[in-house]
Structures are given as structure tokens and as C-alpha cells.
Amino acid sequence: MTLFCCQRFLTAKCGFGQGFLTKSLFFLKLPDYGGEYVIKSFPIVFIAILLISSLIVVGGVLLNPTKSNGKLYTFPLSVAENTYVVTVRSNYTSAPEVGYYGLGALKLVSIDFMGDPETAFCNVTIPDNLLWGELSVISKYYEMPASYYTKTSNSTHTSFYFVFDQIALVKHFEIRGTEGVSGSSLTPIKFCNNRLSVKPL
Predict the structure, then answer these.
(1) Pick from 56, 86, 60, 87: nearest CA to 72
(2) Are 180 and 136 in contact (CB under 8 A)?
(3) pLDDT tens, 29-61?
(4) What is the 3-state secondary structure (H, E, C) of the chain?
(5) pLDDT over 90 for what percent of the chain?
(6) Which of 12, 8, 11, 6 is nearest to 40 (CA)?
(7) What's this model's pTM, rounded to 2 decimal places?
(8) 173 beta partners
(9) Do residues 102 and 147 touch, judged by C-beta distance below 8 A?
(10) Of 141, 154, 165, whose CA–CA distance to 90 is shortest?
(11) CA angle 194–195–197, rounded 5-degree value
(12) What's the confidence (pLDDT) of residue 3?
């Protein structure tokens, strides 16, 4: 009697077929004292749990949308009497500092995040008329393996996407090219052992 009532309930309310229920619900048969009520309540409780879980996930995204999608930062860099716009999208807590250095053989766009350790992403987009040639990503002054980032490009810009979790106060990254505009929006402080420290002009 208990199993029969549960089958009728789920067939009418939830659209399950009779054959499916006969095979799937035989193990739920309980004694008639309260068993029928438990079986009838089971699908309702299960659906309620799914709805609550979904609301928690959606609510977290709505309350902090920039953490998942990141925030877009725009940097118009003045180099050699021209302005080049570099953009960075990131979900790191603080805004990055971005500059260009193109003196001598060294051509690069630097990106610095400053703050506490956290796992975040960076998607930097650079115009091809500012930096070009063979491009590479530098993390903490060392070249990042190609498998650690995603490179995309179109006819005018090149983008690099990577995830970072550096514990240093300053999280330093560079996009280096073999060719680029001669000039700089940065003032070099020191350059030693292939390591460059710079500051905005």
C-alpha cells in the first residue's frame, strides 16, 4: 500500500513513468506506520535541498560579481609622443599598476599587483603597434611556461590570460617582446641579472 501511494504521487506530480518507479522505489518501502508519509515527503525534501544549494551559489556570485568576472582597468600609456591603451581585467582585490619600458633591447609591459596573497586571474591586452615580435610572459622575473597562460590575438591586439597566487607583497609580471616602440612610460631604478625594477614617471 505504501509503495503504491508513493508511485501514484510521483507519477501524477513529477511525471515519472510507472516502470521507472517500480524498479527505483521498491527499496523505499517502509512499514505503514509513518512510512507512507516519509516516502511522499522524500521528493519534496530533495528538491528543496537542490533549490537552497542553487540559491547559495547564485547569491554568492550576485553579492560579489567582480570576484568571478573581474574588473576591467584601462591604462592609456604615453610613449614616444603617442598614446597606447593597455587593458587589464582581474579579480584581484586591488587595482594593478601598468607601464611600458622600451629602451635598448628590452621591450616590455609591466603589471604589478600589490596586496595580500590570494588566488586571482589577470587578462592583459596589449596593442600590436606597441609591443610585437616573439612575446613571452614573465612571472616574478622568470619566464612563465607557455602551458601556464593562454594567448589570444586578433588583427590589432594580443591578450594573455593567467592565474597567479604569489605570496609576495608585490606581484610582478611582464609581457616581453622582441620588438616594440622605443620609449618608456616608466623610469628604471635598476636592471641587474635580467631583473628590472621600475616606477611610473
Answers:
(1) 87
(2) no
(3) 445 555 555 555 666 766 777 777 665 544 444
(4) CHHHHHHHHHHHHHCCCHHHHHHHCHHHCCCCCCHHHHHHHHHHHHHHHHHHHHHHHHHHHHHCHHHHHCEEEEEEEEECCEEEEEEEEECCCCCCEEEEEECCCCEEEEEEEECCCCCEEEEEEEECCCEEEEEEEEECCEECCHHHEEEEECCCEEEEEEEECCCCCEEEEEEEEEEECCEECEEEEEEECCEEEEEEC
(5) 51
(6) 6
(7) 0.62
(8) 111, 139
(9) no
(10) 165
(11) 145
(12) 44
Residues 179, 133 contacting (CB under 8 angstroms): yes
Please give the radius of gyration of the chain, using alpha carbons only, rounded to the nearest integer.
Answer: 29
pLDDT band for position 75 (cuts 50, 70, 90): very high
Sheet containing strand 142-143, edge to edge, reads 142-143, 131-139, 170-180, 107-114, 97-102, 183-184
CA dihedral 124, 130, 134, 138 (to 10 degrees): -40
Cβ atoms of 200 and 99 within 8 Å: the answer is yes
Residue type at 194 in one-letter notation: N
